[in-house]
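Intended use. Records like the one below are meant for learning the mapping from a protein sequence to its folded structure. Do not use them to infer anything beyond what is encoded.
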Amino acid sequence: MCFHCPLRRTCIQICEYVENLLPSMERGRLDYEDIERLYQGRIMTHALLDNVDLLTERQQQVVNLYYRENKQQEEIARMLSITQQAVHDALVRAKTTIGKKLKRYYSFF
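Structure written out for the chain above:
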């Protein structure tokens, strides 16, 4: 993450640069070990949004509402007249679909 930092290969702390990249709800609450998880999540989110055309129409709707419009699963369920479980399942299936495409590039998918 710290491409310009001279300590990037040996650093084990969350510096101000990295702290500013974190979602606001995570700031000040993370350990160094959480950084990899957040980075992987960020890659998955970008991959989902960049490859939304590979998803079913329902998955596209759910992904766009959840990630682009920041809607909660319950709100998406009401908007699409489906259950919250169906929203959750659509997100899981979308991540699985995109994850299969990215396995050749990233080992954590």
